[in-house]
User: Fold this.
Amino acid sequence: MLEIQHNVSLKNFNSFGIQAFAKYFVEINTEEQLSQLFNNSQIVKNPILILGGGSNLLFTQNFDGVVIKINIKGIKHIVDNQNVLVTAGAGEVWNDLVLYAVNNNFAGLENLSLIPGSVGASPIQNIGAYGVELKDVFESCTAFEIETHKIKTFLKADCAFAYRESIFKQALKGKYIITSVTFNLKLKANLNTQYGAISQELHNQNIQNPTIKNISDVVSQIRVSKLPNPSTIGNAGSFFKNPIVTKDQANQLIKNYPQIVNFSVDDTQVKLAAGWLIEQCGFKGLVVGNTGTYKNQALVLVNYGNASGQEIFNFSSQIIETVQQKFGVTLEREVNII
Assistant:
């Protein structure tokens, strides 16, 4: 039974814990319910917001439309030689999928442990952490086309993946609702321990021949040490993308700031660590009213209990302006602003 609720608080549905209200709110447990919803003439006239784990949203106002909470569940897998195709419903908690893979010794997701959010949001954002991006393990996804009510399958080549980008954020934004995602994992692990924090922590724990579980555990420990738990301090994880600049601009910055954290992208581009830039501007651990940056990671903006979305947004604008003035680099928000 499809239940459409009215004037629903979204405070418990976003990891910032911001109080905002949805004109309409509906929870979707099956693809069939999506068809039912979009056959409702009253509903389709309204703006639509798809909600997964709510970990990548900042509400600066109420939503005068329909918030659709995707709860489609289920995880299954098929083994094909050394490959394992794991399919998960869009409403599954991302880390539950990671643990499913780790516990079954399926390699590929371990570096993405403890990222907040839902499976359905993962290809939209092309989530990534510690040297791995979703596109590295993505096989396909199914999605409900809002206009035709048909289910379409998108292969990796269809998705135009880039750093924190996909076709679902660009050309197809607002046109599809992802219902499931299939991942291509491996029975034989090719562990990625190149990211400095991982190799250092493995060394600290005297782990010389790490397993998938070792990597997952270490990544989880690193994330817990750097990032606040949304259940205790409202936040959306990394608030800004790591900026990508030209090699010439990077060389000039390195000349001026030899300690600047940077990673080569290709022959012409360099990625800078947004957290380092923000910290150098004096924002790390700074408290401004009801908001601020987390004490252990300047890239994370937090709600200390009573912040409004607009207050957090304004603070983020202050950070962008200060970093631009000091380094000539423009930060881009990773969090979706509503």
About this structure: The first strand starts at residue 4 and ends at 9. The mean pLDDT is 89.
